[in-house]
Amino acid sequence: MAKASIPVDLFNPGQVFACMGFLEAADVLIGNALGGFEWSYGGEPRFAIQADGAGDPFGVVLDFLSKGRLKRLAPKGYVEPSESVGKKQPKKNESKPREEERKSGDGPVLTIETFPAREADRLALPLRIKHDGRHLDITHWCDGSSRNSFKLFAGQQRSNGIAQQMLDAIRQLRDRLGERLIVDPLGPTVPLGGSSFKFDPRKSWTGIDAGYSPDEQSHDVHASPVVEVLAAIGLEHTRPDEFETRNVRYGVWGASLPLLLARPALAGVSVGVPMRVFRFILDLAGKNKIVTFAQEETS
Fold it and tell me: Which residues on adjacent β-strands are paired with residue 156?
């Protein structure tokens, strides 16, 4: 099994969620992934993954993201709102393929039989990143179950537009930094416009902070596209604990764990290994919720 580790800021919730995303992705792309945080007070915290194969798990995931093709996911019978007027609807008993791919101005659409939400919202469709016969789904913001969807972006921002911008930025970082991005994937930032998944607090400007709204003025602020995409993947099967309105708690664990235990640990649930728990406030910028830097809970 290959093992590697990367630096992580435990007080940056987006980076912690992105570590979970690396673990989820490594398990899908490589197999049998185990992950955990390593810290010593006064030392640099790190997140380590070991998985099948000989390749660096973080490098495998970054290569997949830099080469992957993005598709939107929609329920059977989905019709783009702008295309619905005057369009002939399929007959009720008309047979359809199990999966159907269509194209629109917003990019490819893949219709699936099992959809996570009761209704499809064009602005917040779930996504699939696919390459070389493998795929990663990002669907948490339209989770129709009783769980908190933890959807932070709002307004006219489109899920696929955000994700495509981040994937393009990851490709550019991969080309520019090469192996250095594998060594420290969560650290490098790039100028990003107003649209993002709102996970990286380094982009968490608000009107109060700046005296005006950078998002509304289309001014770029710096954040990590790796954090934005991997954090979204990391929340696919687990969520931090929003114990009060816009007050959120998450945990980091000090042992190498499989996903079955890492997922509840991220929510701050004790799983029998050393843990540290942090909390942060979801700030508001218009209708958007924004992750801010965390503070550690002390007993």
Answer: none
- pLDDT, tens digit (0-9, with 9 covering 90-100), for 97-123: 344 444 445 677 898 888 888 888 889
Tens digit of pLDDT for each residue in 118-142?
A: 888 889 899 999 999 999 999 999 9
Residue ranges covered by each domain of the chain: 2-67+154-296, 69-142
Best CA proximity match to 264, nearest among 294, 238, 242: 238
Res 97: pLDDT: 39
- Rounded to two decimals, the pTM is 0.87
Q: Report whether 111 contacts 76 (CB < 8 A).
A: yes
Calculate the CA dihedral of residues 200, 26, 237, 185 and round it to 10 degrees: 0
Q: What's the full length of the chain, in residues?
A: 299
3-state helix, strand, coil in the chain (%, to 5): 30, 25, 45
Please name the amino acid found at residue 80.
Answer: E
- 8 Å CB contact between 120 and 106: no
Q: Which two tokens stand for residue 220?
A: 């770029």
Residue that the structure tokens 């390749």 belong to: 55
Q: How far apart are CA 211 and CA 258, in angstroms?
A: 45
Which residues sit opposite 253 in a β-bridge?
Answer: 275
* CB contact at 8 A, 31 and 247: no
Count helices and strands (H / E) in the chain: 7, 15
